[in-house]
Write a structure and sequence with these properties.
This protein is an alpha/beta fold. The protein is 33% helix and 10% strand. It has one domain (2-141): TIM Barrel. The chain has five helices and five strands, in the order βαβααβαβαβ.
């Protein structure tokens, strides 16, 4: 099971209405909902991977520590929830570095080896992002869908397995 740890205002679909410069004025809702999820996962003795947005890690470091302490995998979702299709390799590199640094500042004990792109935007034209991820020690990506019909994501010839 995997969960993108981001707040309601971080999603791309709202970026025209709630710009990045306004995030700090938005009500954080991710902590309460995540604590409910953590309780349910614990009740059912289930572990998950949490793809943590760096912004959320900076705002709620104790939540990230609690996820780690509960035995869940912490992976990265970048820092600013920017679509890779709208970034240069240099901008993506900075976003990954910032996201990883934010998670590390929380004081978690595990290595971060996983990544999921905002809106699953590792596509044919952004395969270069995999080299950037490898540079940062990321060993797997959870962003690729082996489909060709969606207008914003998918790599039609991608394998069905890891």
């Amino acid at each position: 099971m995997s969960i993108d740890l981001e707040d309601w205002f971080c999603v791309y679909v709202l970026s025209q209405s709630i710009g990045r410069q306004h995030w700090d004025s938005c009500e954080l809702r991710v902590e309460a909902s995540t604590r409910k999820i953590l309780h349910l996962l614990d009740q059912h003795n289930t572990r998950a991977t949490f793809f943590v947005l760096g912004y959320v890690a900076d705002k709620l470091p104790q939540l990230v520590r609690d996820i780690d302490a509960a035995g869940h995998e912490i992976a990265t979702h970048g820092y600013n929830h920017q679509l890779i299709t709208k970034l240069t390799p240099e901008e993506f590199d900075r976003d990954i570095a910032d996201g990883l640094a934010a998670i590390k500042r929380c004081g978690i004990k595990q290595d971060i080896i996983g990544f999921r792109a905002p809106s699953f935007t590792i596509v044919d034209k952004t395969r270069w992002a995999l080299d950037v991820l490898a540079k940062h020690g990321i060993r797997y990506d959870s962003s690729v869908f082996p489909i060709g019909f969606h207008p914003d994501y998918g790599i039609p010839d991608a394998p069905l397995g890891p």
